[in-house]
Specification:
Blueprint lengths: L22 E8 L4 H16 L4 E2 L3 E4 L8 H14 L9 E8 L4 E8 L7 H15 L26 E10 L1 H14 L3 H13 L8 H8 L7 E5 L4 E5 L8 E2 L2 E6 L3 E4 L3 E7 L4 E8 L5 H20 L25 H6 L7 E5 L2 E4 H16 L7 E5 L4 H12 L3 E5 L6 H10 L3 E4 L6 H10 L2 E4 L21 E6 L9 E5 H14 L7 E4 L6 H13 L2 E4 L2 H4 L2 H10 L4 E4 L1 H14 L10 E4 L6 H10 L4 E6 L8 E5 L11 E2 L4 E5 L12 E7 L30 E11 L5 E6 L3 E4 L2 E4 H9 L4 E10 L5 E10 L11 H12 L6 E5 L14 H4 L7
Parallel strand pairs: 2-4, 3-4, 8-12, 14-23, 16-17, 16-18, 18-19, 22-23, 24-25, 25-26, 36-37
Antiparallel strand pairs: 1-5, 1-10, 4-5, 6-11, 6-13, 7-8, 9-10, 12-13, 14-15, 20-21, 26-27, 27-28, 29-30, 30-31, 31-32, 33-34, 35-36
């Protein structure tokens, strides 16, 4: 559940247009009341205090004292929750309503609700007047007192969207309240303003407390004492009632406040502070089912921790705040490059590559690598680019290693039909040659020869080798090894060059960490155009395992891949969570789990990992270890996490891979406290030096104030992803910064829409794409759905059912959407991720 907003503009000011919470209050009373006197006093007070503009509904009284009540407090909260969420009648104009119930012979509960717009003192003063009129007796007018406000309310409060919600009370210790008070006094602010500032800091992408950032936020609300503060760029409202007189007696009886268990809320979160001294107490109202009780409790705990840190920070002038702790030096692994490490196994006869039932041992693979290198020797010089566009098999693997051994930069392309993406990659990189196997007379290669003047080399041709063997050049760790291209799902793909040091270090770590050495049977599943394919190939060969190449007609068909995995006794597979879910469905449906006993390592990457997928895999494949890998192409990979035991909430992306430091910073480049969401930044010697043909250095800006002693810190990469560090030190992925949009004035998390719709039983998978007008403003959502189908092939759900499901989930929040039915599966790019650029071209069904 993401509570942070996408924008970071200054917060709003209190205004008449703020979506204030309803004016209501509930109380427990002990004793007896005169119901007739109460009804008379109620109409007298409403008319005398609020004027004719507000109508008094008749008092509603319920007597449940004949029932056995085990928990009076719980019953009081339940009744007040029912009254708080009950809609007013159809009668026009603002209403004042009074509810009363006798719970036991001596216990009563009283609830007052006022629909009219008024300030925060209105309700307490109305209750004082009600008590006075009641005690004066029936017919007395003197108890009405003066009007509650200088002028009667002119009409009902402005119409705002209201959502069903629940509440979670809190009460924080006196020590924290005293520190808040001291901070407020030092800053010339009110304690309420300090609490509000901490709430705003929490809702930002970090908002580091205790330094100039916190005090700059505090300046926006320095003198708040009571009232409601809208946070317009966050789905949240702050209300302070701590300066409003507390009601301790009502109708002449001692009164204790009751917090309703349910309320209507004007936003996703509403923080209400009742008292700031001697303790800080109040409640958090949260929209259900967007937040559950555990999520709300987490928000309060994070707020308390952030507030504690903020008021413990030194004031300005007490010494410059330390922006960041200096990071340790990171040095790169200058070990041997991948082609050297892989061919070192050539002395043995262990299988290296298995394709189409034919095994190639390491000695034969080494000989093939040397032959490819000799054929390239006359065509390329170190630093040239070479593209490999060959069908799956041992020769393709030999070609990869041969290119690396000549000091050329590798571009790995998938064979078959090619589109604009392939042309864009070739035109950006301009390789010296393209390696093929067999027929090479297709549109892409003709375009490459004619437009770029490139050369095509057929490794399957029976051409003679050069007469003299040309020695392999020395490859330095910093030399370029390969160029990968980003997925291009939201725009033109970018070329990302990487060094031999980066590839070798990661391959050695991956092969060692995941036991991909002798005896391992690793499925080469990832598409060649996605850089994890190169990682899984290199890791297996460096470690000395066997690489099992998945046939092209099997790779993307889960019904065929599951028996293939079983038949080949595969021990390792790396894939994306969405495809793993398809595999899980097939395994469950066909009962294939006993045949997959060899499968011991499942590596999942490229997408957020749903906890229900982890649970499903654990149930059907209990002996398999599941790992969550995270990292953009620009750093090869960044974090890893082994999922063990039951998972509640998002699956962590884990800890940094060796040679990388992962930071979580706010918009001012300050480190975020534990539990606070911020931007993920990676520091590493293995960060790409930049994009090919681009001068854009924005994603590679260093974090301010970070200096590493001794050695060069390496590069920096700002991933564009959000995350937060958990108390155990692991990191939780919190979505993309660019997946948060504003729609009809409301912040909408696209991943939240997708997750909620995926819960509908008729939805197999879905993706949401925002649709913007010419000005760039998002006006609607395009929701693409792959429906589940019945035995006759008909969808089990309709657009109207999906729209109704979203309406139930998001309440009255306006989500203008068109629905697009996808027949088979969502389009995916070479990385296996949903290709949102292709989704934009689809037509809606409703």
């Amino acid at each position: 559940m993401d509570i942070e907003a996408a924008a970071h503009r200054p917060g709003g000011r209190p205004s008449a247009h703020t979506p204030a919470p309803p004016r209501h209050a509930g109380f427990r009373l002990t004793g007896n009341i005169d119901l007739r006197a109460l009804r008379q006093a109620w109409h007298t007070v409403v008319r005398g205090c609020l004027g004719d503009a507000v109508a008094a509904d008749p008092v509603r009284f319920t007597d449940v004292s004949a029932l056995t009540v085990d928990d009076v407090d719980a019953l009081s909260a339940a009744l007040c929750g029912r009254w708080a969420t009950e809609r007013a009648g159809a009668a026009p104009g603002p209403r004042a309503r009074l509810f009363a119930a006798r719970l036991t012979g001596t216990d009563l509960v009283l609830f007052v609700s006022l629909d009219a717009e008024a300030d925060g003192t209105c309700l307490p003063r109305l209750l004082d007047a009600l008590s006075a009129a009641y005690l004066d007796g029936p017919g007395a007018e003197s108890g009405a007192g003066a009007p509650v406000s200088p002028a009667p309310p002119a009409g009902p409060a402005p119409e705002h969207r209201r959502y069903e919600g629940a509440v979670l009370p809190f009460s924080w210790d006196g020590a924290l309240a005293r520190r808040v008070g001291r901070t407020a006094e030092a800053e010339g602010a009110s304690p309420q303003s300090v609490v509000l500032t901490a709430f705003r800091a929490l809702l930002r992408h970090g908002g580091h407390p205790g330094d100039e950032t916190f005090r700059r936020l505090l300046a926006d609300a320095r003198h708040l004492t009571h009232g409601t503060w809208d946070l317009p760029h966050h789905d949240a409202v702050f209300t302070s009632r701590s300066a409003v007189p507390a009601v301790t007696r009502l109708l002449g009886l001692e009164a204790r406040p009751v917090v309703p268990e349910r309320v209507t809320v004007p936003a996703g979160l509403t923080l209400v502070v009742d008292v700031v001294s001697p303790r800080i107490s109040g409640h958090l109202a949260y929209r259900t089912p967007v937040y559950d009780a555990a999520s709300a409790a987490d928000v309060l705990e994070r707020l308390r921790a952030l507030l504690t840190t903020a008021v413990a920070a030194p004031p300005p002038g007490a010494g410059a705040p330390e922006r960041n702790t200096s990071l340790p030096a990171l040095t790169s692994d200058d070990g041997e490059p991948v082609h050297v490490r892989a061919t070192a196994h050539a002395r043995g006869d262990a299988p290296a590559v298995v394709a189409a039932g034919c095994a190639t041992d390491y000695a034969s693979l080494g000989a093939a690598v040397r032959e490819v290198a000799q054929r390239l020797a006359a065509l390329v010089v170190p630093g040239d680019a070479v593209a490999v566009r060959m069908p799956a098999g041992a020769l393709r693997i030999a070609a990869l290693l041969g290119v690396l051994s000549r000091g050329a930069r590798l571009l790995w392309l998938a064979p078959g039909a090619a589109g604009e993406r392939s042309r864009a990659m070739l035109s950006t990189l301009r390789p010296a040659c393209v390696l093929v196997e067999g027929d090479h007379d297709d549109d892409l290669l003709r375009w490459y020869r004619d437009e770029l003047g490139g050369r095509v080399l057929d490794l399957a041709a029976d051409d003679p080798l050069p007469a003299e063997e040309i020695p392999a050049p020395r490859v330095a760790p910093g030399d370029g090894a390969y160029v990968a291209f980003t997925s291009g799902s939201t725009g033109r793909p970018k070329g990302v060059p990487q060094s031999h040091a980066a590839l070798s270090q990661f391959a050695h770590w991956m092969g060692t960490r995941f036991a991909m050495g002798p005896g391992a049977r690793v499925a080469q599943w990832v598409s060649p155009e996605h850089d994890p394919a190169l990682a899984e190939v290199s890791a297996t060969l460096v470690a000395g395992g066997a690489l099992y190449v998945v046939p092209d007609d099997v790779r993307i068909n889960p019904d065929r891949l599951v028996p293939w995995l079983a038949g080949q006794r595969i021990t390792h597979i790396q894939t994306v969570p969405s495809f793993a879910r398809d595999l899980l469905d097939v395994i469950t449906r066909t009962g294939a789990a006993p045949e997959l006993g060899a499968l011991g390592h499942i590596l999942l990457m490229g997408e957020a990992l749903p906890p229900e997928l982890v649970a499903g895999l654990a149930e059907v494949l209990p002996s398999a270890r599941v790992f969550n890998l995270y990292g953009p192409t620009e750093v090869v990979a960044a974090t890893w996490h082994e999922v063990t035991g039951a998972v509640r909430g998002p699956v962590p992306i884990g800890r940094a891979i060796p040679g990388r430091e992962v930071l979580i910073v706010d918009e001012d480049d300050l480190p975020c406290p534990t539990g606070v969401t911020g931007a993920l930044v990676v520091r590493s010697p293995y960060v790409t030096p930049g994009y090919l043909g681009s001068d854009d250095r924005a994603p590679f800006r260093p974090v301010k104030g970070m200096e590493a002693p001794g050695a060069t810190a390496g590069g920096w990469y700002r991933t564009g992803d959000l995350g937060r560090r958990l108390p155990d030190g692991t990191i939780e992925f919190r979505g993309r910064e660019d997946f948060q949009i504003k729609l009809s004035g409301n912040r909408v998390e696209l991943t939240e829409v997708e997750a909620s719709l995926s819960l509908h039983p008729s939805v197999l998978e879905c993706a949401v794409v925002p649709v913007a007008d010419a000005s760039g403003l998002v006006g609607r959502l395009a929701v693409h759905v792959v429906p589940r189908r019945d035995a006759g092939g008909r969808p089990t759900g309709t657009a109207s059912a999906w729209r109704a499901h979203l309406r139930r989930y998001f309440g009255p929040l306006n989500l203008p959407a068109t629905f697009h039915e996808v027949v088979d599966r969502l389009p995916r790019n070479a990385a296996g991720k949903v290709d949102r650029s292709r989704l934009r071209a689809m037509r809606p069904v409703a």
